[in-house]
Amino acid sequence: MSCFLPLDSKNTLTRAVDAVKKHQKNFKDANNNGINDDDEEVENDKSLGAAAAMQALKMFSSGQAQGKQSQGAFMAQAMAEAAKLFDNKAAQGKVAPEASKQSATQQAAEMALKMYLQSQGSKQGGGLMSLASKFL
Question: What's the pLDDT tens digit per position in 57-69?
Fold first, then answer.
């Protein structure tokens, strides 16, 4: 059994909308800069991974990401954001007991890969930048 969901547009859209909501909840200001420490809800690995993948997409689309903007770089950025978010939330006791840092980073990488592959399908429309403009 594959850990990846098919890239059908309904499933991808639903997951993207959920990721946007998690991102908005977990990152601070109107520009979504910084981690939101005020949120009292306990997070699971999927929600942390989704929020981190959206943060990576935001960083890539705004030019905040350093270096080459490749698939690997995008996934690495999402994983780094997930690790940072997990550590911050865990230090505050806001991570579900069954959640792990490894799982959160894996979820972020999977979501980032799906976003990247979806953007490649709409490459004529601008790739990741086009995908980001739909959600951020």
Answer: 888 887 776 667 7
